[in-house]
Amino acid sequence: MLPDSALISVRAAYVNSIDDVDLCIINTWPGTGRDTENVLKTPSTIAYPEENKKIGTRRWGFGVEPGHKFYSWTKLLLDKNAPLTKYDDPILEQATKSGILQLPANKDAVTVVADYLTGIYDHIMLTLEKQLTEPVLRVSPIEFWFTMPAIWSDQAQAATREAAQRAGFGSRPGRPLDAINMITEPEAAAIAALTRSTTDIVGVPVKAGDGVLVCDCGGGTVDITTYLVTETQPTLAFEELCTGIGGKCGSTALDRNFYKLMSERFGPAFDKLPMKRKGPGSTFMSCFERIKRNFGHNSEDTTHDIEFPMRSLEVDPQYYDDDDQAVIISDEDLRDIFDPVVNQIIDLIKTQIKDANKEMEHGTINRIILVGGFGDSEYLRKAIKKTFGSNEKMAITVPSNPQGAIVQGAALRGLHGIRATARRCRRHYGFDWDLKFREGIDDEKHSYWDRYRGQKTVAGIMKWMIKKGEKYNEDYSMTVNICSSHWPSYSLNRYTNLYASDLMEAPERIENPGVKYIGRIKSDFTGVDLNQFDSKFIDGEMVYELSYSVKVVIGAQEGILKFETTSKGKVIGKSSITFAKASYY
């Protein structure tokens, strides 16, 4: 299996002031690899000089040229520990197992993403300097809004933020007032699309009571989220109807399917070719990109030729033209490449509509909005229209710039504060708990004797603080009150484990395979006067009962879980959570 060619990409937009109604999308990106002068996005690829003798510094985006050893797909590696869903591209799982999703030696995914984002940051600041002048830019605080897939795990969200901070975004020496905020891609797309739809004079504008499904079809992921429009005047207001769903089945899956077809059809003649001939950014894959982008517009079947010399080739002439040395791709081939991905997206939409209609008190979902790079596919639009648009009650629309809708929505979120008034929790969150043993209910193997309380206790009971599908507002917090015995030999650093579950019904016990460890929250009691806590002598030792509360904030606009520890009514320190490989505040 070979790396894909439809690279996950980066887009950026900005506004100068709250009075500036025009969003400026950055459409000039450095590098010789772009086809035209103005492009709306730059590929998320990076090449290192240590592995490429002919370059002196890191190359990123369009600066990466065919023949360079480079890395892509790295964004997907930020969420490598997320469980696969039935909607994920199965070839992606095979690629992961075969080692195609690789990293440079001695670099993790966060480091590679940070290196790439450093180039993005420098280019954004250069663009702003041209618009504002250097003296004005130097004293102007900047809010950076990053969009992320809604299916991202908490670890991936925190990793994305850390990579951005390492790259220079957010508060740092010299720019202390800059900030990083995060928003999910479907919500950003909804803000842009619904804002536009409330003022549309062409088509059917949205109105209060409409149920809107946003299908964000990106490069690596597809996110489906439904919203209820609660009002359009004086300002737009909408809320999530049900828990969104998604999968790693974006447009990159088309390229994996294409590589698979080439390998099956031409065998070693294709497989053994160097990556500069067939890899991302090559002339071969650029031709396929154009074919893929235009597929669905013609009503009659046709064939497409891609010039591609290969040696020792003995194949059916319907697949390869020896005279022109060209690969022949039919529309039937393209359907075989597209249909598995399109069908996965349609299944996602069906599931989400069914769930959302149950939540609506009146009416049903009556609008589907396609956004993202793959959302611009005419073949995808026709397939969705055929499935869902057979009656006039369902409007299926594509914004004029579906790729730019997400960054436009993120800019509007920062500019006007437009947001979903309520969201749905995508998973259960909670802590493991020790409770008084319940005879006839709890298993003896989970029991122990609590010397401080003098009672038989059972460990590992889950205390779920917020349920999957539960409605919550921005900066929603959940607080757990903890009592913990402190013996003289114990550390004053206390740890509280945070867990999540994607199951519909939250499990009761910690060892259930559906319970996933998120990380541990550290609370530091160093310097705290222990005499303010209850205590008693046990076997000649003074034992204290530390009582404290850990508050977990979800839905913060910073885009990450936030924590705070308090005791006796006072904040005793900010808490940090340690994920698998890194610690984030």
Give the radius of gyration. 27 Å
Task: Provide the spatial order of strands within the biggest beta sheet.
Answer: 21-22-20-25-26-31-32
What is the name of the CATH topology of the largest domain? Nucleotidyltransferase, domain 5
Helix/strand/pairing category: alpha+beta
- Tally of separate helices: 13
Q: Give the CATH H-level superfamily of the largest domain.
A: ATPase, nucleotide binding domain
CATH classification class of the largest domain: Alpha Beta
The percent range for helix content is 25-40%
In the predicted model, the low-confidence regions spanning at least 5 consecutive residues are: 1-8, 94-100, 580-585
Q: How much β-strand is present in the residues?
A: 25-35%
Per-chain topology:
Elements (H helix, E strand, L loop, with lengths): L8 E2 L2 E2 L9 E2 L16 E2 L2 E2 L11 E2 L9 E2 L2 H4 L12 H9 L10 H24 L1 H5 L4 E6 L5 H14 L11 E6 H13 L13 E7 L4 E10 L5 E4 L4 E3 L4 H15 L1 H4 L3 H4 L4 H12 L8 E5 L12 E2 L4 E5 H29 L5 E7 L6 H11 L6 E3 L7 H12 L6 E2 L3 E9 L10 E4 L4 E12 L4 E2 L3 E11 L6 E9 L13 E10 L9 E5 L2 E14 L7 E6 L2 E5 L1 E3 L4 E2 L1
Parallel strand pairs: 8-9, 10-17, 17-18
Antiparallel strand pairs: 1-4, 2-3, 5-6, 5-7, 10-11, 11-12, 11-13, 14-16, 15-16, 19-23, 20-22, 20-25, 21-22, 24-28, 25-26, 26-31, 27-28, 28-29, 29-30, 31-32
Organism: Talaromyces amestolkiae
Protein name: Actin-like ATPase domain-containing protein
InterPro entries: ATPase_NBD, Hsp_70_fam
